[in-house]
Amino acid sequence: MPTPAQSCLPLQISHLLRKFPPYFVSPAANWRSTLTPPHMFTPAELENILFLDCETASITAQYDDLSPRMQALWDKKSKRYESQHPGKNPAELFPLAAGIHAEFSQVVCISVGNLQFDENGIPHMKMKSWYSPNETENLQELTRSLDKFTSSRESRFLCAHNGKEFDFPFLGRRYLIRQLPLPLALRVQGRKPWETMFIDTMDLWKFGDYKAYTSLDLLAAVLDIPSPKDDIDGAQVGRVFWDEQDYERIKVYCEKDVLTTAQVLLRMSRLPLAVV
């Protein structure tokens, strides 16, 4: 059924709008305000978004700890990194590159955050994290949080920077590897792309461009938002996890990414930055 806003539109435009996720179409708006809304996202829509980031580390501390079968498979996978790191063998490439492959790494920290606007229109951010060497426990805690958030009302979404390319598929794969039930938000089988619950700030920044990659740090800089990379970055998480075992430091970094992602979406929506 078309929304009230869509029923006011010419047939061609109405057909186009049906293809977009529901957060792009306001049922109460007339067709002009639907096509040119004052904000990319309204405060009410932003309160229905759960911002998310996950940090990963290799599944074992070093290449030699892998099984012979997994070593052979990493030897094949690591060939794609030889040009970036000339002279390094698969064992040396393992701590550098394994962390972005769900088959060779694990989730060591997950942080989520939700915005709430006060009576003065100022957004406030509340965050929660799960971080430990026990990946199964981290994922089970995430499931409880995601299912509670998404089941309480319709039109709720998950948002991450580069989430469609990394966070969401990575988490889904690790759930399957650990033989855990998928949270509702990650059950994408049978859904059309616009029927998923995913929002990606990098995807929004592309404006339809398929070749651009913009880091969260760069996007924060151009939008005048404090950098989340003032301590470590993603490439250092494995070392901090395995060598230093400083899980709290990883959690702090992960929460900074969640907050920055929310700030980016607030800037895109021309709204005040959040208070933590």
What are the key terms here?
276 residues; alpha/beta; single chain; 5-stranded mixed beta sheet; globular; 12 helices
Provide the gyration radius in Å: 20 Å
Instruction: Find the count of extended strands (DSSP E, 2+ residues).
Output: 5
What percentage of amino acids are in beta strands?
A: 5-15%
Order of helices and strands: HHHHEHHEEHEHEHHHH
| Terminus-to-terminus distance | 40 Å
Give unreliable regions as ranges: 1-35
Q: Provide the residue-averaged pLDDT.
A: 87
Number of discrete helical segments:
12
Describe the largest sheet: 5 strands, mixed
Helicity, as a percent range: 25-40%
Given helix and strand content, the structural type is alpha/beta
Question: What's this model, at a glance?
Answer:
This protein has 276 residues and is of the alpha/beta class. The chain is built from twelve helices and five strands.
Task: Chart the SSEs and their pairings.
Elements (H helix, E strand, L loop, with lengths): L3 H4 L3 H7 L13 H5 L7 H4 L2 E10 L9 H10 L12 H8 L7 E13 L5 E9 L3 H17 L5 E4 L6 H11 L20 E3 H6 L9 H7 L14 H8 L2 H22 L8
Parallel strand pairs: 1-4, 4-5
Antiparallel strand pairs: 1-2, 2-3
